[in-house]
Specification:
single chain, alpha/beta, elongated
């Protein structure tokens, strides 16, 4: 099982959806009260730094509003021992000109897109119990 603590909602939902789509784990949940048997991993994610250009900034400033970005610290802990077994900062950013062209679409989707990338990263490093 992989359990996800509180985090930016769209990022968390995208990460959970990505992990569930793989079908590699018996359970992927954000319910921290759920007790499951076997080996379990807890995922803690903390936003280290973030800048997302607002819609009005993108409208009035276009590319001059700058890039949007997110830096997230991910900690994977063994559920039994609470020991941190992996720690990594993952980040993403968009292109200011692309964001201006899409009228801020890539700004709004940045947390969700990062969640998908985090889910794929976790899938690559956490072995399946199935």
């Amino acid at each position: 099982m992989i359990s996800v603590m509180n985090f930016h909602l769209s990022c968390k939902e995208s990460m959970i959806s990505q992990l569930q789509s793989k079908g590699a784990y018996q359970h992927v949940t954000d319910d921290t009260n759920k007790k499951l048997s076997g080996k379990n991993v807890l995922v803690d994610m903390k936003i280290v730094d973030m800048r997302i250009a607002s819609g009005s900034a993108r409208f009035w400033g276009g590319a001059f509003a700058g890039n949007s970005f997110m830096d997230v610290l991910i900690e994977l802990r063994d559920a039994d021992t609470e020991e941190v077994v992996h720690r990594k900062v993952l980040s993403t950013s968009n292109n200011a000109f692309g964001a201006a062209w899409s009228f801020g679409g890539s700004d709004r989707s940045l947390p969700s897109d990062l969640g998908t990338l985090i889910g794929e990263y976790i899938f690559r490093i956490v072995p399946s119990a199935k």
